[in-house]
Predict the structure.
Amino acid sequence: MPSGVKNKIYEYLSQNKGKELTAEEIAKAIGVEKVAIVKAQLTRLVREGKVEKTAEGRYRAK
């Protein structure tokens, strides 16, 4: 499941390029109840260089 979530997160952020979103906003948008799962996958995406962490707890696609 988590890798599917990671893809959904990346797709969602890519569709909203330029927008800075919180993990909570992303989780709600892609239909994931546990924000902790989204946060863990966001961390992986940041490490992979696909997503960047911006202001306090916000993320956007690179």
